[in-house]
């Protein structure tokens, strides 16, 4: 029986075409090698989405895992070597939900010394307390499985991934660079249209067209100021030559002509937009109602729901199972540790590239999705009669993968919230829950139907 548990999740290994690229392969191999040298009895637990099986549109069924093994032989060979020294346990997430549907996967992964537990929740014991382990998709209305283990019972999230993410992998080779494969890193998925527009502008747009468009955008605010000043001149609140015939501006020579041309072009654009604004609004409203009437548009489906449903699930678990000291989940790709008295909620994050939307230094230019990595893992072990949760980040020198122009105009994103490196819990200590309406992460409590199913029995 292990005395130390190491947690990672959301590796998303695999996918059609460019999606099969594994940016963090070297770091993952080194991490697995390092686990072999631990002095204590260690169990590595990958709590969901180890593989990106949903990201395959060209193969089906059990052939998906075979494709992952074929594309990443070094990773699976390292699983085999590491698994000879420590226990490696894997539970399904939503992107590798197939693992819960075909019993043959248990034997296939066992060939690489990986123990597949096709359960929605598993538990482990440490220092007299219980670790509750899940991926968390059952608390996400768009990704919970209506009939766990049934390969034909798929949530709406599967179809979104198949139509959008897998397709992006197939078309990414036609892009200028491999940016399209990063669609897996866009979260929440509502951000995808804005992310596509940003990358079109900075990567795919004709350089000549971008050279024309950028000055128009940069001087858009000046154009608005010019229009406002012209109105003030017309009604007599400003001198007649303050804006339109200012001698200082005329002294610019050729630059004045270029500036006036840009302003005139922007004025025409503004006029056209104002003329079309009301018809476009009416058209959009009518089209939306028509699509809803035909059932094409899914009203209320929202992918990015924050962490509130998962924290509420943790609250439920702590209240109904008094021995549970640590609630571990993933799925949202946001690593975190929340401490409630002597209980902790751990989100294992992701090893995928993170894309964070940041504003540019110039307000009218499209925002940029700034890339970063937060390769991390959590260790949970006993220290006397206490439970210790340690958080460690694996350093990586992955490139930022931004064009020179993106680097020039992008603001630096804020640093992610700090996670304590060491947290000590007393499994017999107090549970200090915040008020229900103070639990951070979203706006409302989850639907009770979204809470976990197939819970293992834990003696209180």
Automatic annotation (TrEMBL):
Biased composition (Basic and acidic residues): 449-460
Keywords: Cell inner membrane, Cell membrane, Manganese, Membrane, Metal-binding, Plasmid, Transmembrane, Transmembrane helix
One GO molecular-function entry: metal ion binding
The keyword Nucleotidyltransferase is annotated on this UniProt entry: no
Species whose genome carries this gene: Halostagnicola larsenii XH-48
Any GO BP: lipid A biosynthetic process
Protein name per Swiss-Prot or TrEMBL: Calcineurin-like phosphoesterase domain-containing protein
Gene Ontology, cellular component aspect: membrane
Residue ranges, annotated region (Disordered): 415-460
Transmembrane regions: 212-237, 257-283
Record-linked SUPFAM superfamilies: Metallo-dependent phosphatases
Calcineurin-like phosphoesterase domain segment(s): 6-137
